[in-house]
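Protein folding task:
====================
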Amino acid sequence: MTPERDELVMRQLLQLAYDFSYIPTFNYEVHPQLYDLLPEINQLMLDSMDHWFETEGREFSEEHRRKTSLRFCLTLGVGASWFFYQQEEPIDAKSLFQIMAAPRGEDAMDEFIEDAVGIWFSSDSDKHSQWLALCDSTYEVLIAHYDWSNKEEKVQAGLTSVRAGVVTGIGIIMRERTKARYEGDFAWDQHVWSSFICDKRHTIATTLDMWVQKCLKVGLPIGGNIVSLPKENPPYEHQVDSYHQLTLPGNAGIQTIFHIDEGIPAMVTMIPRIDSSRTHYLIVDKVYERDNGVEATICAHFADDPLMRVTFYDTEYLKNRDQYFAGQCYVFDLYGMAYNASVVGQSQSASPFGGTTALHSFVQIDGIHPEVCRFRAPIQEVYNDLDVMIPSLYEVEVGIPYSNPRSGQKHDLSVFIPSQQIPNGEAFLQKGTAIEGTLILMGKMRVTASFEERPSTEVRSFTPLTQRGTPRKFIHKCKPSEVGIEMTDAERLAFAKKVVKSFLGHDLEEAFEGEDGPDFLASRHRSLWVKSDEDYCAASRFMEEDVTPALSHYYQTGRFPVMVYVSLYDKQGERCQWLKGGSYTAQLHYGSMLPGQRMAPREAYKHEMLLQVLFEAFRNLHTFPLCKVLHKDLHYTSQNLPDPIVSREEFLVHLEGVFEANRFNPEGAMKVKVVFNEEKEPYIELSYPDGLIDRLEFKSHQHLITEICIRNVKRPNPDVNINIH
C-alpha cells in the first residue's frame, strides 16, 4: 500500500464523479472528524458484507461480491456525509453506521444501497440509473489497482471508495442547499429569477441548480477574500469563512458566491451578471452591508450633482469590500435588471405611476430594498449583441433622472429586459417608445476616479522623554563663533533629522532613497519623512504637503509613510527660534500619509461593545474584529514603544506581530481580563509570562475607537529580560 497509489486512485474517482456532474470541483474540504471516522466505518461495512455473504448471499460469485461490496462502500460515503452533517452533537463511527443501516439493520445489506441512494433519487429515475453507472465505473478503477484477495488491499480499496463517496455526498448536499436557497421567499431575487426562467417544465430551483453546477465547474474567479466575521451575539469568537466568487464566461450570464461551511460548499447568493453597461462617476456616501458580510448596497451621489443620489446593489462587493472610502470618487458601471417591464399603454395591469405621471420617472419603492425602483422613460437606443447563457435579453438605453427633484439632468442607463416579458419585442422596442416597470439597480466598481489622494487630517504630537519621565535635551553643536546665529533651512532640516535619530536610535536606519524618498526606515514597517517645524503650524503644513512620492513608496514597498515635524522649545518650555549652539527640548508631530477616509462603522457600537470587541481580539489573538471599529487616524501609544502609531493600518500590522509572538511563545500567551472600576471606565488588563502587567485604555468617538493607550502597572523582576509587547 502506498499513499501515492491511493491519491492517484482518489483523483480518478473524483474525475468520474465530476464527469457524472455529481461534484463541481475536486477541491472539497471534508470535516476532519468525519475523515477520522471513515476507516472504522469502512471496516464495519466490510465486516457486515462478509457476514451477509457467508449467510444470506452464498450464491453470489466472487466477482459479484467484489462489485457489490465496493458499490456499497461508495454509497456508504454518500450516506456518511449526509447523516454526519445532520448531527448537532459529535458522533462515533459505530453510531453513524447504525443510523445509516436503520431500520432494516446492518446485516440487511441487500437493501441498504437502495435506502442510501433513495435519499437522493427515486429508484425509477434517470438519476438513479446514472448513479449505478457511476458505481460500475468506480468498480473498474478500484479493481484495476487493488488486489481483493489481499485483506489489507481489500480494506484500502473500500476506504478509498468510501472517501470518494463522501466527497460525492458533499457535492449532492451542496446541490440540495442551493435548491433550498431559492425555493422560499428570497426577497427581490425571486422576482428576478422568475422573470428569466421561461421553461415551465422546470422549477426555478431546478434551473438554477443546473446553472450553479455549470458555474462551479467552468466559472472564472472574480475575486475571493478570507472574510472573518464575529458571531452575532457575544462572545465574539473568531470565525473564518473562505468565500469564492465565480462567473460564467461571456458578457452576460450567472455569477455565484459560495463558501466552505464545515467542509461543504454552501451557496450564499447567485445573481445575473451583465458587463454591458454605462459608466458613471459616483462619490460613495455609505455602504449597507448585508448580514453575510459579502453582499452590500451602495449609497452614492453623482460627482457633478451632489443632490442627485443613487442606491444600487454591488455585484462585486466581495472583491472590493476593502477598497471603499467615504467621500471618495469612483467609476461605477450601472445597469438596471427589469423584471416586469412593459411598453407604456400595453400593460394589462395598472401603471405604477398612473396615467398622468411624467414620462421620465425613477422612484425607490421602499427602504428595505432601496436598489428596487420603478421607472418610466422613453428608449434612446436598442442593442442586441449580448452573449448570454440565460434567456435572451433586450438591452435598451434610457435617460433617467435618478432622485434629484430639482435637477432636470438625466443620466443614461442600460436596462436589460428578458425577452419573455415583452413578446415580439423586436417590433415594439424602438427608439422613442416609452417603457415602464420595476428594476433592480446593479453596479460594480470599475476604478477609483480620484488620483489626488489626500492624507489624514490628524497630526499627533508628543514630547520625547527620558527614562525618568522628563523632557529630553537636544544640543546643537557648532563652532564657538556661530553660537546664537539663526540656522539656515538646510541646517534646520539637518538638526531635525539628528533630533529624530538621537531619540529613536537603533530603531532607525538611513534610507538613502533620493530627494523624494524617506529620510529613515524605521522598525514596524514604517518610513519617516522629517521636516523642521519652524513655523509652528505642523497640522496646517501637513495638509499642504505633496504626498505623491510617499504614496508611491508605500505602494511599492508596503512600508507605512509617516511625516515627522520637529518643533524646538527653550529652557522655559516656550517655542523658540532655531539658533545654533542652543540646548533644546523638542516636540515631534506625527502624521500618517495614508490616503482617504475608510467607511464609517456599519453598526452603532456603544462604548461597552467596543470594549467587548477589544477584549475578544486580545483574548483570541485575532486582529480582524478590530478592523471595523478603529478610526483611520487611530492614535496608539505604549510604554513599550518609543513613539506613537498614528494610523489604523499600521497599528493592525504591529498588533498582528504581537499576537503572532504570543501564539508561539513557549512560556504561553498573555492573559486578558476586563477590570471594572466604579470611578472610571472599565479597562483591559494584560498579564505576560515574564511578570509584566499592562493596562489597556481607549477612547471612542462616533462609535469608533480613536485612541488606545497601554501603560505598565507592574514591572517584572529586573533579572528577567523584558520583550517589547
User: Anything to note?
Assistant: The chain has five domains: 3-183, 188-271, 275-448, 460-592, 607-714.
